[in-house]
Structure formats: C-alpha cells, structure tokens
Design a protein that fits this description.
- It is a single chain.
- By secondary structure, the chain is mainly alpha-helical.
- Helices cover 82% and strands 0% of the residues.
- It has helices spanning 2-24, 26-33, 39-55, 57-70, 73-93, 97-100, 103-133, 139-167, 170-175, 180-196, 199-203, 217-224, 226-246, 249-257, 262-290, 292-313, 319-346, 353-370, 372-383, 388-405.
- It has a single domain (2-207, 215-405), classed as MFS general substrate transporter like domains (Growth Hormone, Chain: A), CATH 1.20.1250.20.
Length: 416
C-alpha cells in the first residue's frame, strides 16, 4: 500500500508542478510570447494558452483511459509521466516572440496541449489505481494521495516562485528566471519514472480480464453511465473553479488586480497551500467516516455562504488579513479535493472506470477549471469590479450542491 500511495503521490507532484509553473508566471509569459500595448490583453492571451492545456485534458483522458481499461493501469501511468516531463522541459527551452516571432506562441500552445493530455491521463488513472487497492473503509484517505500530490506540486511551484522572486531581480525573472521551473520539470519526471518503472509487478493482480462492453470504453461509458457522468461533472466543476480561481489565479489576482507585490502574493499562496496539505487528508478521512454526500454537500454550502466575505477580506491592505482569508478557502476546498478521488472510482463499474472517470473529471476541468482564470480576468475588465471572481465560485458551488443531492451514498460499499 505504501508503494501504491507513493506512485500516486509522486506522479501528481510532477503533473501539477508544471501546470502551476505556467499559472504562477502567466503574466511574465504573456509579455514574452504575446507582447501587447495593453497589459490586460497580453495577460488574457497567456491565460488563454493556460486554458488550452485544459482543453487537451479530455483527449488525454480518453487515450490514457483506453490504455488503462484495455491493457492495464501501469502502462498508462508510465506514459503520462514521461509525456509531462518532456513537454515541460521543452517549454523551458522555447525561444520568445522577440526571437522567432509568431512561431513562439504556436510552439507554446503545442507544448501546453501535450501537457494537458498528460494531466488528463495522470490524475484519474492514478486515482483509480490507488482506490481500487484500498480497503473499503479507507478509500478516500488512500485516494487523497493523488490530490495531496497535486497540491504538493502546486506548493512546490509556488515555493520555487517565492525563491526566484527572492533571489532574482524583476528584470532577471522577466528575461530568463521564468524558465527555471520548467527546466526543473525533467528532474521530477525522472523521479516519477523511477518510482513507476516496476509498477507492472504490483499491477499484475489488477490487470483487466477483458472488456465487458463491446467497442471503445469511452463510448460505452457515455451510453451506459451518462447519469453518473453528469453527477461527477457537476461536483468536479466546483473543484475546477474553486481550486484554479482561489489557488492558481490568486497569485495573478493579488499582484495584478489588488496590487500586492509578486513576492507577497507568492508567500500568501504558499502558506495557504501548506494549510491545504492538512485539510485534504483530514477531509478524506472524515468522508470515510460520515459519507461522501454530507462532506461534499457541506463544503458546497459553506462556499456559497463564505466566498463573498472571504474574497472581500482579500482586498485588505493588511497582508495578515489576506492570508487568513486565503487559508479560509483552504479549509473549504481541501476536503473537496480529498474526497473527490474516491467518488470518481466508486461512481463507475470497473471495466469502464478509467475512461468514464477521465471523461467526467477532465471535461469538467477543461470547461470550468482551465477557462476560469481567463473568464475571471475578462469579468473584472468588463465589469470593473474586483469581486467578479466570487460569482464564478458561488455559481459552481450551486451546481455542485445540486449534483450532490442527486447522488447515492457510495462510502464503504463494494466497488461496482
């Protein structure tokens, strides 16, 4: 079980570290690859490329999910971590718009699409692999290793941002410092591959015995599991909007919209992510005890009620108040991240599980996660209201609450 948890954790550290690196340096990357007279236009173009990575997630989820359902979980896990390491390293080597012109943003988009395809296969496959091996009374806790790894990757990306802003001048970060996190991705990729290279030995006992449904698993999942797909997508939309607005876009929001220093923004976000490292497994363990529905529904209700006051508190000139508000969001979003992996596995039958979970989760992340930072930037610019992102989070929480109310309780029941 320790080996399985480590496999799930390490791979997701790599996957989200690389995604975080782009999100945290979106403004700098925008100026390097999308120069414009209006800084908002440049930032939105950069966030549009960030969203492109999410658009590729459902495609990657379908491809790697097919491999996982038809061949086995291990080959899919090895392939996803290798693709992420290579594409991330290449972003760190890309020439800028000033060097090669319009070819630079095109190459950036291609690399982001490869990153997105990798993440699409990684998270859901690693979740399925871990939860399928977990005892029924600890499924959420074991499955939370993937979310814990993803958040640790975000934390590592934020920590690298803090270190770079402390050691380098703004001019150095603008010229070459933004490349460092992407180049470091190859190191994490090697660690991830070494952790998983003998995974097939562990996976032999769970190798698919043969498809129960004819045709492509993704087609069979849509045809036979459409209700569960919609329920999972409804809950995942809150994860996407909540996490990427409140813990990825937040650095850009604090520095660009609320005019805190970039160093202060990184410090606040890093501490909030540290708090989330506690709330993720704590929320998962609680859902193993009280059930998925009470915990997920409770988090959705609290986000509906508290998002506006917490985001309003982040407008304070006192950085301590901003930090406390960000940590408040960590207490509300962390349990969602800890519980969702178990729900993804429990919602679908085994022979379609990876494909169905990948479609539901990654499609929701593509629409509600990847587009959220760009939509938030557009809303603020359009309405001239800094509180506009709160509408996105509250709306997603309402959708998630409706989805939770239609769920059947799956905690501690046999997997389908």
């Amino acid at each position: 079980m320790r080996r399985i948890v480590a496999t799930s954790f390490v791979g997701n550290v790599l996957e989200l570290f690389d995604f975080a690196a782009y999100g945290y340096f979106a403004a700098v990357i925008g100026r390097q690859f999308f120069p414009a007279d209006n800084p908002t236009v440049s930032l939105m173009a950069s966030l549009g490329v960030f969203a492109a990575g999410f658009i590729a997630r459902p495609i990657g989820g379908i491809l790697f999910g097919h491999v996982a359902d038809r061949i086995g979980r291990a080959p899919a896990l090895l392939g996803s971590v290798a693709l992420m390491a290579i594409s991330t390293f290449l972003i760190g080597l890309l020439p800028t718009y000033a060097q090669i012109g319009a070819a630079a943003p095109i190459l950036l988009v291609v690399m982001r699409l490869l990153q997105g395809a990798s993440v699409g296969g990684e998270f859901t496959t690693s979740v399925v692999y871990a939860v399928e091996h977990a005892p029924p009374h600890r499924r959420a806790l074991i499955g939370s290793a993937s979310s814990l790894g993803a958040t640790s990757g975000m934390l590592l990306g934020s920590g690298v941002g803090v270190l770079l802003t402390a050691l380098l001048s703004p001019e150095s970060i603008e010229n070459w410092g933004w490349r460092v996190p992407f180049l470091l991705g190859i190191v994490l990729g090697v660690v991830g591959y070494l952790t998983r290279r003998n995974l097939s030995e562990v996976a032999e006992a769970e190798a698919p015995a043969g498809p129960a449904h004819a045709g492509l698993p993704v087609v069979a999942a849509i045809r036979t599991q459409w209700r569960a797909l919609l329920q999972v997508m409804g809950i995942a939309c809150l994860m996407g909007v909540g996490f990427y607005i409140l813990f990825v876009y937040s650095v850009t929001y604090l520095s660009t919209i609320l005019h805190h220093s970039i160093r202060e923004a990184f410090n606040i976000n890093t501490i909030a992510l540290l708090v989330m490292l506690v709330t993720i497994p704590a929320g998962a363990a609680l859902s193993d005890r009280i059930g998925r529905k009470p915990l997920l529904g409770g988090c959705a209700v609290l986000l509906i009620l508290l998002t506006w006051p917490l985001l309003h508190a982040m407008h304070s000139a006192d950085s301590t108040v901003v930090l406390l508000a960000q940590c408040g969001f960590a207490f509300l979003v962390g349990p969602l991240l800890g519980t969702m992996p178990a729900l993804l596995v429990e919602a679908f039958p085994r022979d379609l599980r990876c494909s169905a979970a990948s479609v539901a989760y990654n499609l929701s992340m593509a629409v509600f996660g990847g587009l959220s930072p760009m939509v938030a930037t557009w809303l603020i610019s359009r309405t001239q209201k800094d509180m506009a992102p709160a509408y996105l989070v509250i709306g997603a929480a309402v959708v998630a609450l409706v989805a939770v109310l239609t769920l059947r309780e799956t905690a501690r029941r046999p997997l389908r």
